[in-house]
Amino acid sequence: MTTPLRRIAVYCGSRPGNSPAYTGAAAQLARTLAEAGIGIVYGGSRNGLMGALADTALACGGEVIGVIPDLLNKHERAHPNLTQLHHVASMHERKALMAELADGFIALPGGVGTLDELIEIWCWAGMGSHAKPCGCLDVNQYWQPLFDLLAHIRHEGFSHGEQQLLRSDDPQQLLALMTAY
């Protein structure tokens, strides 16, 4: 029996990236989740894709919970209008609280921090720490190099049979894959 998706943690950049498609995808994902009655747990910033995600979900009446480490709050500035905002002492605490609050995980385009959060939560699934779906919203094939690397890892015999990392370029299709997981 699958657990309903009440909240999804979304990992994404605190910068907008070089393509307007990234901001558009963050807004489209936020609308899709809000319309489905699924809350968002994210990094708490008002900048970049994080801000676009939060602003759109809030405008659509969605629940948005931010989790921001004190160190990042000095640089990124927390979003002032969230449903809830949790201040934590470290990135480790942020990751653990986001994992606790969410029923699934989606990565939008982002930098090394986004990649770190995605790989860690997916690794936790592979080790049996949770059975929640993990996926990538593959805007303009942003995540293709990662999937190429994962295929290379499997080909070279270093894969442990990890849990499936879901992927789609369409938020509704990705949500359907996660719901069926």
Poorly predicted ranges: none
| CATH topology call | Rossmann fold
How many discrete structural domains?
1
Placed side by side, the strands forming the largest sheet appear as 4-3-2-1-5-6-7
- Please tell me how large the radius of gyration is: 15 Å
Structural class: alpha/beta
Which CATH architecture would you pick? 3-Layer(aba) Sandwich
Distance, first to last CA? 10 Å
Strand content: 15-25%
Task: Produce the secondary structure layout.
Layout lengths: L6 E5 L8 H16 L3 E4 L5 H12 L4 E6 H7 L7 E5 L2 H11 L2 E4 L4 H15 L7 E4 L6 H12 L9 E4 L2 H10 L1
Parallel strand pairs: 1-2, 1-5, 2-3, 3-4, 5-6, 6-7
Helix pairs in contact: 1-2
Tell me briefly what this model is.
By secondary structure, the chain is an alpha/beta fold. It is built from 7 helices and 7 strands. The chain has a 7-stranded parallel sheet, sandwiched between helices.
Q: Can you characterise this structure?
A:
The protein has 181 residues and is of the alpha/beta class. It has a single domain (7-173), classed as Rossmann fold, CATH 3.40.50. The chain is built from 7 helices and 7 strands; from the N terminus they run βαβαβαβαβαβαβα. The protein has helices at 20-35, 48-59, 70-76, 91-101, 112-126, 144-155, 171-180; strands at residues 7-11, 39-42, 64-69, 84-88, 104-107, 134-137, 165-168. A 7-stranded parallel beta sheet has the order 4-3-2-1-5-6-7, sandwiched between helices. Strand 2 (39-42), helix 2 and strand 3 form a beta-alpha-beta unit. Helix 1 runs parallel beside helix 2. It is globular and about 45 Å long. It starts with 6 loop residues before the first strand and ends with a helix. The relative contact order is 0.17. The mean pLDDT is 93. InterPro entries: LOG, LOG_fam. It comes from Venatoribacter cucullus. This is Cytokinin riboside 5'-monophosphate phosphoribohydrolase. One of its GO terms (molecular function) is AMP nucleosidase activity. Belongs to the LOG family.
